[in-house]
Structure formats: C-alpha cells, structure tokens
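Dear support,

I submitted the protein below through the web form. The confirmation email said the job was done, but the results page showed an empty box. After a refresh the structure appeared. I'm attaching both so you can tell me whether what I see now is the final result or a partial one.
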Amino acid sequence: MTTGTDPSTVPDWPAPVVRLTGQGTVEVDGAVLPLPPGLDGADARQWAVKNVAERYARLGRAIRVTAVEADGTSFPLIVHPDGTVEALAVEAAGGRRGKRRPRPAAATAKSDTPRGGKSAPGAKGANGRSQEGKSQAKGLIAMGAFLGVIVLGGVVVFSGGGGDPDTAPHSVATTPSAKPTPPPPANLPRPAPDGWTTRAAWALKISGQIGPAVDEDGTIAAVTDKGQLVVLDGASGVTKWSAGVPNDASGSLVFTRIDGRRVVAVSTGQALHYWGIDGDEHPHHSVNIPNSGTVTFLGPSPLISLRDATAAVIADGKVQNVDLPVRTTALAADQQTVLAADPSGHWWRLAPGKQPDKGLEMKSPADKAQLNTVLGVDGGRLVGVWKKDDTTWATAYDAATGKPLATGKAAKDPGTLTVRAAGPLVAVGPLLLDTQRGSSREVTGATPRSAAAGRIYAVDPQQRWHTLTTGADVVMNSKDVAIPLGVSAKRALVVADKLGEKLLYALTPSTNGDQQPAPDGSGQVAAPEPPGQGTS
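What the results page shows now:
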C-alpha cells in the first residue's frame, strides 16, 4: 500500500477523466462505457476507478485520474496499480470542495480538467496550519464523498469489484518527452516484392492481434507488442505519438474520416475507438456499435450495416441511423452519406433524416446483358457485373453522376469476383479497369488480394503474385513474397513473422546494383544437421 505520494513524482500523463453520467454509463475521455447491471451510486464510482487502475496497472506506476460527478464537481485523485487511491489537494485557501465546471459534450471530453492546485510546501495559514495540509484534508473528505467510503490514512484500496476490466478506458495520446530511439534495421525473412529489397531500414515488433495500417499520404499506425498504438515516422520508424488501446481490440487499424477529421480507428466488436491524426492533439473518442451492427470501411468513412433496411453513420460523435429503400444494400459511407444499391442496378446516396430521391440506374454495357451483381468500390464508385451467355462484363460507374467510367470483358465466367482498388485502378476478379483512362485489360485467372501505393496485388492459379499497375504487369515468381501495406518516405511497409514474433518492416527501394534473392527454382540448399542425425 502506498501512502503520502508526492504529486510531483506522478507524471502528467496518462490522465484519464472518469465522469459519472447518472444514466447507467460512465464516460472516460469521451468513451461511453455501460455499467454492469445493478451498479449505481458508490458502487458505480468504485467500479469506474477500479477499472481504470486495472487498465493502467501495466505501466507499473501511479497515474492521475480526475473523477467527475454528474453535476460537474471534480475530484483529482492518484491511483496506484494495486488499486490504492489517494486524494490530491482540490482547493486553495478560502476555496470550496471540488471544482464545478461546465459539462462538455460526451464525444469530445478530454483530459483537460484541472488536477487540483498545489500550495507551496510549508505555506502557513493564519492559524499556523499549512494550506497544503488543509487542502489535502478536505481532498480526502471529497474523495470519500465521491467513492462512498470512509477514508482511513489518506488511502482507499479496492480488493473486489465487478465488471470486465477489458472494457476499461485507456490512455490519451502522448508525444515522447525525450528523444526516442529508432527501431533497428533488419533483414526481411521472406522474398521482397517487386521494386524493393529485403533490407529494412527499420523493423518494429507489433501486436499479433491488431494489424498495422498505412494511409495514402504515408502516415503509419501500428499497435506494438506492448499494446501501445503508435504513429511512426516512415523514414526512421521513430514514434511521433502513442496511446493505449483496449485489451479486447482486434482486426486491423484503419485510417478513415469521422466528423470531417482524419482518424485512425480500431474495433472491439462492441465499440469503435478512434484518435485524431492531424494537429498537435490526438483526442480519443469511441462510439458503441448496436448489437446487430457490422462496421466496414469501403468508403472514406465507417459504414455500420444494420438489419431491417437500416444502415448507420457516425456523426457528431454518435451513431445515426439511415433508412434504406426496400431490398437495398448499403455499400459505403462518406461522412454522413451512405451509398446503397438494389439488385436491379438502382443506387442512392442517402443521409440521416432525409427521404431518398429517385436515385440513379446502371446502364448495360451490351445489348440483352443481364445484371448479375452490384459491388461497392469506395464512396465514389461502384461496379456492375453483367452476363450474357458465357461472356461477363464488369463496368465501373461514377456514384455521383451515374456515368460509366470503364468496362472490362472476360471471355469466360471468372467465378467469384473480388474487388480491390488503388487510385484510378479497379480490379474486379481478373478484369483490371482504369477509371481515369476508360480502358481495361484481363489478367487471366488472377484474383486481387490487396492494393497499396497505386498498385494492385493479385495471385494466379499457380499461386504466383502479380503487381498490376497502369503500365505492364509484373509477375513475382516467389509464392511467399511479402506484400506491401503501403509506402512511406520511400519505404515499403510489410509484415512478416520471425522467430514467433510479428514485425513491421520498412523495406528500402531496389536499384540496379542491389542483390535480390533468386526466384523459386528447382534447386535447393541443404541445411547442416546436428551431430548424430546425418547420414553415415
């Protein structure tokens, strides 16, 4: 048990704000968390603070927490990894308990609530008692009032409690105070993609549960093996800023746009957490996803697909429903606009609280061709797959005007079609459409798997990888070649496993003199064998 902690020894970050709403939820730095059933009053307060303690226990040190009542009264606390809670001084001489502040919007609450003043050490009042001592004593009373417990010796220890600590909040984004050490260089343990070497300028250990992401402008986001969200400098791999992530987050990080701002997002299944990217501050927000909801990121913004002819978008920090016409499927979202289409080839751009207009309709690329499938590309384009006898066409349309942008023709049924897009290029199964030039070509048997930095990567029936661009296609003979997530500062970012760990590698570009690994061939290199296991 820790007592009498000097507040100056407790760093200013992380500094989560725990706010009781009085409506069965707790807000932490803008994240709205439902309380376990049956908890209210003092039990709810203790649950909230205990979960914060458990969440940050991995730091191995005390943190500052500001607890805020539903009426706005704040209580600055110090919370230790073992659950010990200490009160900070909450008033200056002549002040009153706590600080009553205007209640900010839930979706934008940040850890900017003052943590309490600190009198100069040894300062005396008129009665000879130190102002610091008076403030601390009243702070203890305030802490006891907030937590609903009797405070003895200046501390409170929670040994029990309810709720799942995995739903507890996490730290706000922080910028390293000291000059960070860049990750070391390394060699990629797999063949490199076309145009890159197996030499990595740097390599970073990352989470095996959450995949990294590279934005179109080269911004890199990853979750480290220590569970920290980091935004990295592409050239050096140095961390620009970091934040904690929920323990139950999974899938991949995604760059997207919410409320007009660029953010990096990750899902926990029941909630979407996101952080602002641009600017000096990177506030954390989260929204709860309805039980029936599925979040996808085909367009510039998150799309929440719901049942009963309903979709949803995130606007003003909240989930807002969008009614869909009958038999319509939502494909993508752009801010508050949802792109949705029906099986007949009609599509609409819909928004919350607005009635749909007459929409637009796909034009057939050939006489008597029948529409087979409608596929989403992004917020501005969609594809119609048409069939007539043994011939298949794929046409990309401008979602705003209905204009056909490019059409590709396959000589035989390509089977299940997968869509990937990179800039003006749209791959629909083996058909590659250039929506800028209005041209197309077929890469026989190819299935697009990923896209990055203006290139689409596809695999053929022989499991060879193809790099598809606006120019000539490149066939990479190695079957286990590493495929880039994106490019940043002339580095190709790839993920590969090495000795049981997952690493993010920043590959350097190849030049004419670079020695690349030989492609797959019929020969082999025999590895040495331990003594007693070789042939005699």
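Response: this is the final, complete result; the empty box was a page-load delay. The mean pLDDT is 79.
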